[in-house]
Amino acid sequence: SASSPMPVEEEKVSKSVLQIKLSNLAIQIGYIGSVVALATVIILVVRFCINEYMINKQPVKAADLSHLVNYIIIGVTVLVIAVPEGLPLAITLALTYSVKKMMLDNNLVRHLDACETMGNATTICSDKTGTLTTNRMTAVQSYINGTFNKQVQPKNLDSKTKELIIEGICVNSGYSSNTTESTTPGGQRTQVGNKTECALLGLVLDLGTNFLDVRAKHPEESLFKVYTFNSARKSMMTVLKLGDTYRVYAKGASEHILARSTFMLGAGGALEPFTKENLARMTREVIEPMASDGLRTIGLSYKDFVPEGKKQHDNEEEYSGEINWEDEEFVRNGMTAIAVIGIQDPVRPEVPAAIAKVQNAGITVRMVTGDNINTARSIATSCGILKPGEDFIALESSEFNARIRDDQGNVDQNKLDKIWPRLRVLARAQPTDKYILVKGIIDSKVSKNREVVAVTGDGTNDAPALKKADVGFAMGIAGTDVAKEASDIILTDDNFTSIVKAVMWGRNVYDSIAKFLQFQLTVNVVAVTIAFVGACAISDSPLKAVQMLWVNLIMDTLASLALATEMPTEELLVRRPYGRTKSLISRTMVKNIAGHAIYQLIILFFLLFWGTKLDFLDLPPTNPDPNSHLPTAHYTIIFNAFVLMTLCNEINARKIHGERNIFSVSGSRKEYPGLLAKNR
After folding, report:
1. Is the pLDDT score of 602 beyond 60?
2. So what's the pLDDT on residue 6?
3. φ, ψ dihedrals at 160, nearest 5°
4. What counts of helices (H) and strands (E) characterise the chain?
5. Residue 10 has pLDDT above 50, yes or no
6. Long-range pairs for 10-14 at CB < 8 Å and ≥24 separation?
7. Whole-number Å distance between alpha carbons of 130 and 137
8. What are phi and psi of 623, to 5 degrees?
9. Residue 501 pLDDT > 90, yes or no?
10. Which residues contact 123 (CB under 8 A, 6 or more apart)?
11. Average pLDDT, whole number, for the chain?
């Protein structure tokens, strides 16, 4: 609708790149076929009238009407030959076959055209957690009691601090999150639920406490109030009622937790004021070093509300009457920081190679993450998204929005166009940032062709971006139902390498259609030419309407099956995307079509005009009355020669980039050395 800020419905009804190109091609072929068919009928009718009525001086007879009907049938034959009826079938077969096979590559395709669109993708906006990383998180560093611990087991841990850490983690996390020790020696712990919470629960186990015992002491139904985590809060809070005291535990992004704190537990658990200078020092000496190691930094804090007159410690807050729990700002400010935990989420070992492949294929990878800028930059460098010495930028959400919005706070496309071409990492991103980035890239006029954008998402708030993108990838494991519903493809393993497989399959579909077109258009050019020349030279088409329907519907169906079911190869990733404006029929394909058409026409014209004079064929003379339109052995030989040459041409049609070896399963780079340079 016109009033909607996110017109997602309009996006999905638009045609894909291949559909647009095929529609244009079908219209062009239709025009050419109609002109040739009309010219054929006119030539036949004019020639018959001149011969019958002007040269032979014959009177007009009722029988002449049958000749005119036959001429119209010949014209229809030419039109039938010109229009590739097997093309829609070939497209459907190629897409359906690819979709079925993509399931084996962990891509569950929900919309058929997404498969083909992915082959033209120029930008991939990917999440970090679970897609580029393993989503198996472990706590590896900590800052507790004024000590920066580079190993998970903190030294000289104060008993009160330990108790607060354990209770704060166990109570202030989803009770569905769970981690258990591996049954095999040296094996990894099994993690169920939120992986960040599992890492913190793992820290509780490392501290020698079973979190289930703590949860048994504080069952979920006994929790007074829970403020669940969301992308706006960047934290989670849980309120416990301990007699007439209320204790609030908080955990979340370390910058947010520390910014809300006015006290901190120092050496030996001593209470220390936490000023802006302390915050700056902590950011510089703790958070940034952890983030530079690629760690996610999680802050833990607490706050006690005590009845008026019962305050014993400086960090306690007195209350009288009812506390307004709906006033989140009041509840979460003035807390006491307990610790900062550094959580490691290793990059998937196969991801750097996969990113290098798509970059080599002319696709830009951008990382959009909720982590802080230093963690994001470290992971992006490990993956190969950011490279030393290259003029790319990484921005936090606040700076990104400051740069792209005008004085009224609206997104300015011109300002965004100055940012996105160099942007590779967007940190501390909100779901709205992802939508703005995707929409901005799609609407941009900076590139020669419109960018084709793929985006990954797992949360409910990612739905608008998933719908807006040309191809939306939802996470099959970590994704919500809303995200899956908004997506085009679901990654059943949440892995970036599966996106690379989708690119290969998309390009394979495009090439399969191009192969079929090369085969089909050769058939059409030869058949239209022989029918037109035959009609003009001998007043009859050597190829009949039924024969051509047989070729188009039977032979072309099998051809589309053969050409549309070839498996994709790595060589599909050595070229850049075709783009929205590049013709479906390349210059190399035109040469192939013209070359084989000329060869076939030479053979067929020889058989048409001199075939009856060849002794070894032993053909009877051609029917003396060309207007009888009866079947002859001569025309049958021509049709058989045409079919056999077309069958052999199907093998040639397997290659569309000028490769020399038509029998190879996959073209090697040596076979088309100019291809990469040409597409760069």
Report:
1. yes
2. 45
3. -65, -45
4. 25, 20
5. no
6. 11/467, 11/468, 12/111, 12/467
7. 10
8. -50, 125
9. yes
10. 363, 364, 365, 366, 441, 451, 452, 453, 454
11. 86
The reported pLDDT for the residue numbered 11 is 43
- Tokens representing 417? 């166009």
The DSSP secondary structure of 343-412, one letter per residue, reads EE-PBPTTHHHHHHHHHHTT-EEEEE-SS-HHHHHHHHHHHTSS-TTS--EEEEHHHHHHHHB-TTS-B-
> What's the predicted TM-score (pTM) here?
0.78
Q: Which residue has the tokens 């935990």?
A: 341
Burial class for 198, CB neighbours closer than 10 Å (0-12, 13-18, 19+): buried
Residue 32's CB is within 10 A of a number of other CB atoms, namely: 14
- Mean pLDDT calculated for residue range 86-97: 80
Give bridge partners of residue 178 from the DSSP assignment.
Answer: 192
Which residues, other chains included, contact 91 with Cβ-Cβ below 8 Å and sequence gap of 6+? 18, 22, 513
Handedness of CA 15, 16, 20, 25 (dihedral sign): negative
Q: How many Cβ atoms are within 10 Å of 673's Cβ, its own excluded?
A: 11
Contact indicator for 190, 158 with CB cutoff of 8 Å: no
Question: Could you give the CA distance from residue 564 to residue 560 in angstroms, rounded to a whole number?
Answer: 6
Question: How far is Cα 630 from Cα 343, in angstroms, rounded to an integer?
Answer: 84
* Enzyme catalytic residues: 127
Q: What is the DSSP string of 190-254?
A: EEES-HHHHHHHHHHHHTT--HHHHHHHS-GGG-SEEE---TTT-EEEEEEEETTEEEEEEEEEH
The model's pLDDT over 207-247, given as tens digits with 9 standing for 90+, comes to 889 999 999 999 999 999 999 988 778 899 999 999 889 99
The DSSP code sequence of 545-591 is HHHHHHIIIIIHHHHHHHHHTPPP-GGGGGS----SSS-SS-HHHHH
Q: Is 364 exposed, middle or buried (0-12, 13-18, 19+ CB in 10 A)?
A: buried
- The token pair at 206 is 């490392």
* Total count of residues recorded for the chain: 680
Question: Could you tell me if 437 and 368 are in contact, meaning their C-beta atoms sit under 8 angstroms apart?
Answer: yes
